[in-house]
Structures are given as structure tokens and as C-alpha cells.
Amino acid sequence: MEISQNDALLLISLHRISFLSLAEKIILLKKLDNFADLALLSLTDICSLCNREIKVPVWDGKENLKAAERELKILEAKKIKWLFYSSSDYPVLLRESPNAPFLLFYRGDAGCLLEKTVSVVGTRRITPEGKKAAFSFAFDAVKDGCTVVSGLANGVDSAAHNGAVEAYYSAQENHSALPAGKTAAVLPCGCDAIVPYGNARLAEKILTSGGCILSEYVPGVSSEPWRYVQRNRIIASLSPATVVIQAPTGSGALITAQYALEFNRDVLFHEACFCDNAGKVKKIVDEELSRKAMIGKLSRSKSENTVARYLDAGAPVINGYEDYVKCLAEVPGIRSAKTQQFELF
Questions:
Q1: How far is Cα 277 from Cα 133, in angstroms, rounded to an integer?
Q2: What is the DSSP letter of 326?
Q3: Beta bridge mates, 317
């Protein structure tokens, strides 16, 4: 979608205002003609237009515009594309989620997010069984025309992305029809950088195989702990289902699972969660969390976020992509009783 310079600056200027919700940015967009109008607004003006009291340390519309102008130049120079919330090529499932990104920045082909998708998540402390499970699940998903969404982190994320790109490259090497599925990596920083940097080569493969790397942050924004949590909500939003490969107590993958449930999406767990090595990892993590709890550095919500909690609530367990497809076609809840066979450590 072609966007004029005037519209681009207005959209980026609005996107930068972190103290506004998605709904409030859309309200301002409807009431403003151009970026200059936004730059001239006082905080009192913004409060009046949004119909709520806003308390922030400082608001300078002119400085906000200058920053937006710099960011637009960087986007153009680095050939980073972006999607506006109301545009037809903005991912439909993401648009349905609460407080979706006003703008979505990406490299590669974001069109894969408009097709069939599945989110695959898990711990960085991956076991051999978890690595194999994530790789094969993603490989089979891509061959079936499904785009695999994950976060490019070490561990399960990397294994899933590698399985997805391998499905593409193996078809290419065998001169077979290229799979319709791709893989998409959601970053906790601007998509001009790769976090962790050790996955730069993997990121390149994602792009050359037709996938995409995306973020809600403009170029130059660094990763922060809270941005990983915000990133997780996007991973959960982009698919009708999230598959957890392995996740010890308090894992960020379980935060993604919780977001998925809040967005009325399916959450499924892979059998790899319950292998002996996964149990050993969980024991180590539980001991670490116990030590943190003793010195008051552990939140109750993190210590209570366990795989067992989800299984007790009826989350299904699968053994691979084929079983995942079968599970989604079943009557909801039919597998709940079967989860009792898994050892919850």
C-alpha cells in the first residue's frame, strides 16, 4: 500500500506516543489532517481529544515529529517496510487482539502471516528431545502450508525456525515443489537488529526462504526485559493456536500461552514437555526459583505458572504436527482426561 510522506509522518508520529492506546491513536488519526497538527498539540489538547486525563513527565510534539522524521529516513534507508493497523495486508488475527500494534515493521514477506499459521514456543534450556520435537513439528507444518511463528530466541524458538527453513531448503535441493508455509520471527527490538546476534545467520535463512522478521518497534529500539513480554503477546496473537514444546516453571513460553488463552486461542503442549530430561531441567529451574523466593526476588505469578496448571485446566497434549491437526479437528475437551497419563514431575 502506497503511503504519502505526509501520511507516513503522521502515522509514525502517532505510533511513537507510548502513553496512548491503540484506540486513542486511531481517534487522533481521525481528527488530525497531518503531522504538523499533531506536533502543535499540547498534552491538554491530547487529553481533551482522547477524553481522559493523561499524566506523563513530558510531551513535546515538535520533538516527537523530529524523531519521527529521523525514523522514517532510517526505514527508507534500510528498506524496512511497515503495515498500518487498518491496512488490508495487516495480519487479520493480530488485528483482532487487544491493543494490537498501531504499526508493524518488517523485513521479508509479511504476506505469509495472512495464510495458515501456528505459533511454536518454548524454553531456551532446550533438551535434545525438545530440539527434535520443535524442529520436526515446524518442518511438517511448513510442508503442510502452515507458517510457523516464533521469537528467534535460542532453544525452542531457534529449533522451530530451523525446522521451518529446512523444509524449504530440502525441497529446493531435491527440486521438489517449494512448500507454501514459511516462518516468521517476532523480535523484542527494532527489526534492523537481530537478538540474539548469534542467530543472524538463521535470520538470513528466514528471509531467503520467503519468511519475515517483524517487530512493533522502530529501528534503533533495543531489547529490554519487558519488551520480551510485549513480543510474546504478538506471537500469541498471530496464530489460532500456540504449541508449547518445553517450558519449565515460570518460562516466558508460558506467558505466551497465557496471552493465547486471553485471546481465545488454543494452547497445546508437546509430549517433549514430559520427557526425563525436561524433568531434570524443571528441577534445576525450581531450585533456582526457590532460592530467589527466599530473598524476595520471585513473584507469585511466576512460581505458579507451570505446565501442570494448564493441563489441570484441560489443555491437550500432542506428539507432533499431524497429531496437532487431528487435535484441532476434535471436539473440544475430548483429550482432557488423557492428559492424566503424563507425569507432571
A1: 13
A2: H
A3: 269
Q: Indicate if the pLDDT at residue 115 is higher than 90.
A: yes
Q: Which three cell numbers stand for residue 169?
A: 531448503
Q: Nearest-CA neighbor of 253 among 269, 274, 276, 275?
A: 269
Nearest to 90 by CA among 71, 75, 111: 111
Residue 192 CA, distance from chain mean position:
16
Tell me the C-alpha distance between 269 and 315, whole Å. 7
Q: How many residues does the chain have?
A: 345
Share of residues in the chain with pLDDT > 70 (%): 96
How far apart (Å, rounded) are the C-alpha atoms in residues 220 and 80? 12
CB 84 within 8 A of CB 68: no
pTM higher than 0.85 for the full model?
A: yes
The 10 Å CB-count burial string (b at 16+, else e) for 193-205 is bbbeeebeebbeb
CA pair distance 35, 106, nearest whole angstrom: 23
54 in Cβ contact with 27 (< 8 Å): no
Q: What is the DSSP letter of 41?
A: -
Separation CA 53–CA 51 (nearest Å): 7
Cβ count near 302 (within 10 Å): 17
**Mean per-residue pLDDT of the chain:** 93
Per-residue pLDDT band for 302 (boundaries 50, 70, 90) equals confident
Instruction: Tell me the C-alpha distance between 327 and 345, whole Å.
Output: 24
Distance (Å, rounded) from C-alpha 75 to C-alpha 53?
33
Closest CA to 248 of 299, 295, 284: 284
Omega before 91 within 30 of 0, i.e. cis:
no
Strands 81-84 and 103-108: antiparallel
Cβ burial, residue 329 (10 Å; 0-12/13-18/19+): exposed
Question: By C-alpha distance, which of 57, 122, 125, 151 is closest to 257?
Answer: 122
What are the pLDDT digits (tens) for 51-67?
999 998 889 999 999 99
